């Protein structure tokens, strides 16, 4: 670092090793190449290929790798070093390289003469080294022309790199802006998962806890009433289960087709010709009882106040054993089945105009309609609505004599992640603001 140098971001990549030293893996050369490629293939970087003047540039592996990732040479700048070590008579060949006549590069070549090890040991300052370098080129028979062409000295290189970097950044700004926007979107989404950490002061912490519990309580109530819709809609799932129950009721309706067989199988001690209501009642009770197992299957898929809902469903089946319905309802369904019209004024009436099977079918239809609604309503009431109310009461009770700091304690990793995300958000926001001025 120095006040006398330009601001540049440099990544110093390792030299390409060919022979592994003791303790190094056999594929050390390939590992280094992969590392170098990882950096130089990025379109937002400028690749500086450093080549000593005293070797054959055409065989330089670094330049070859740069050409592979940048065939047109738009991101490659070549730097020729050690001009004081070239063999006498090769100066013109080196000049041809610098003049872009051997391996052309869009950004060309620059020659520099850095401090030698002896100068470093002698604590030669950068300012002194800069003057020594300039004197070298000024007094060189072949290379002095490079000064006028701005193709020699570290100072010239620094100015060139700064301008190249600025130009390259300008070209990359739209792409950088899109990348920053995407990163900002991702960071904001991540922050939502851990945003709103608890305040440190007791009063603020208590208020934070109250607001948090209230929001949670509101969500529970909204969810139980079907107002809050998540990705996996609770009521959509319940409705599907309730539909299965309704479909089962409709598909399992007995036909009661043979009233004579029904009467004979369930005949008591009465003489022929006499009707027995007990027959009607017994047959219907038997078929209603067959619905208990599927009803319990519907309940087993739920949790919470299962026992309470189970008890109410059992009571519903016990009530269905009473074989009761209002006369107008029964007569309406019976009329629909028999295609004959029955009126309350005709009561009491004999069943010779209508078979037992049709009367059983009429009442069973009423049972199906009642059960199709009653079970879902009981499950919704006892396992959703009342559960939500009990949970809400328990949540609000946490505020009574609660240890706020204990309730609001969070894992240190969470707070650290929140801080890191907020810092990233600040940096990205600042970067976006800076970019906006240039785009």
Automatic annotation (TrEMBL):
Coiled-coil residue windows: none
Keywords linked to the UniProt accession: Cytoplasm, GTP-binding, Nucleotide-binding
Cited InterPro entries: Dynamin, Dynamin_GTPase, Dynamin_N, Dynamin_stalk, G_DYNAMIN_dom, GED, GED_dom
All copies of domain Dynamin-type G, residue ranges: 1-174
Annotated localization: Cytoplasm
One GO cellular component, as annotated: nucleus
GO process terms (BP): defense response to virus; receptor internalization; synaptic vesicle budding from presynaptic endocytic zone membrane
A molecular function GO annotation: GTP binding
Domain of life: Eukaryota
Pfam families: Dynamin_M, Dynamin_N, GED
Protein name in UniProt: Interferon-induced GTP-binding protein Mx3-like isoform X2
Organism of origin: Cyprinus carpio
């Amino acid at each position: 670092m120095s006040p006398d140098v330009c601001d540049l971001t440099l990544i110093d990549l390792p030299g390409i090793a060919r022979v592994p030293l003791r303790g190094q893996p056999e594929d050390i050369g390939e590992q280094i190449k992969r590392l170098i490629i990882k950096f130089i293939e990025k379109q937002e970087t400028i690749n500086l290929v450093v080549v000593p003047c005293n070797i054959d540039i055409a065989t330089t592996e670094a330049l070859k790798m740069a050409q592979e990732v940048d065939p047109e040479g738009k991101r490659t700048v070549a730097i020729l070093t050690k001009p004081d070590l070239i063999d006498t008579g090769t100066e013109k060949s080196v000049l041809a390289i610098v003049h872009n006549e051997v391996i052309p590069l869009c950004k060309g070549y620059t020659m520099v003469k850095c401090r030698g090890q002896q100068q470093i040991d002698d604590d030669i300052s950068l300012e002194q080294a800069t003057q020594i370098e300039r004197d070298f080129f000024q007094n060189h028979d072949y290379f002095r022309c490079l000064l006028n062409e701005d193709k020699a000295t570290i100072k010239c290189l620094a100015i060139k790199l700064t301008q190249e970097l600025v130009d390259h950044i300008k070209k990359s700004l739209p792409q950088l802006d899109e990348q920053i926007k995407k990163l900002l979107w991702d960071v904001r989404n991540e922050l939502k998962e851990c945003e709103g950490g608890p305040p440190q002061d007791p009063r603020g912490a208590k208020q934070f806890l109250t607001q948090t519990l209230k929001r949670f309580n509101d969500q529970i109530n909204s969810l139980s009433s079907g107002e809050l819709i998540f990705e996996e809609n609770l009521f959509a799932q319940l409705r599907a289960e309730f539909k299965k129950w309704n479909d089962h009721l409709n598909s399992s309706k007995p036909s009661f087709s043979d009233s004579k067989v029904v009467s004979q199988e369930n005949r008591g001690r009465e003489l022929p010709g006499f009707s027995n209501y007990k027959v009607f009642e017994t047959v219907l009770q038997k078929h209603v009882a067959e619905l208990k197992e599927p009803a319990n299957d519907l309940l087993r898929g739920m949790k919470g106040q299962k026992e309470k809902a189970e008890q109410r469903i059992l009571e519903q089946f016990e009530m269905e054993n009473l074989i009761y319905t209002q006369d107008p309802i029964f007569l309406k369904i019976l009329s629909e089945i028999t295609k004959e019209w029955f009126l309350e004024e005709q009561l009491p009436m004999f069943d010779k105009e209508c078979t037992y099977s049709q009367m059983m079918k009429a009442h069973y239809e009423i049972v199906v309609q009642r059960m199709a609604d009653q079970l879902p309503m009981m499950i919704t009431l006892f396992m959703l609505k009342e559960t939500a109310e009990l949970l809400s009461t328990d949540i609000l009770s946490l505020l009574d004599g609660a240890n706020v700091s204990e309730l609001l304690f969070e894992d240190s990793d969470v707070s650290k992640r929140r801080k890191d995300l907020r810092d990233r958000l600040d940096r990205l926001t600042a970067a976006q603001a800076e970019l906006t001025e240039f785009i």
